[in-house]
Design a protein that fits this description.
Elements: H1 3-10, E1 16-17, H2 23-33, E2 37-40, E3 49-52, H3 53-63, H4 72-75, H5 89-99, E4 103-108, E5 111-117, H6 118-143
Parallel strand pairs: 1-2
Antiparallel strand pairs: 2-3, 4-5
Helix pairs in contact: 5-6
């Protein structure tokens, strides 16, 4: 399975936020959308950064409640690790583990094409394992 398969199953919609939005707006958006990160973009296609709940917690620890008035650009990660629709789930899982990130924007032909989370990757792997188990079980029963 590849990243494109995950996007086909879950959808390719991506919630983005502008770099000049406040962290307070970000926090409200994360809650409303029930997500853990947003891609930072001015046009919805170009990835300028990514910002997650972890970034907000770090900002809160460093600056206290006034962080909510800061701009997203002040907290966002600028060197974004991304993947392509053609990357395998195994490659993506390894990259997420190695880099200790939970969200990867999917970029195709230089434009934002989706986002996947570690939860999407784990769900995909569990579904693959269940299918493999069923195939093996059926093969075993057929040989008896």
């Amino acid at each position: 399975m590849d990243v494109d398969g995950i996007l086909r199953a879950k959808g390719a919609a991506v919630v983005t936020i502008r770099p000049d939005a406040t962290v307070g707006e970000l926090v409200r958006g994360l809650r409303e959308e029930r997500i853990g990160a947003m891609v930072v973009s001015e046009d919805g296609r170009t990835v300028l950064g990514i910002i997650s709940e972890r970034d907000v917690v770090r900002g809160l620890a460093d600056r206290g409640p006034r962080i909510l008035e800061a701009q997203v650009a002040e907290l966002m990660t600028r060197q974004v690790v991304s993947c392509t629709p053609r990357d395998s789930v195994k490659q993506v899982m390894e990259e997420m583990t190695r880099r200790r990130v939970r969200h990867l924007p999917v970029v195709a032909d230089g434009a934002l094409a989706g986002i996947i989370s570690i939860g999407d990757v784990v769900k995909n792997r569990l579904e693959e394992m269940a299918m493999e188990t069923n195939v093996l079980r059926e093969a075993y029963i057929a040989r008896r």
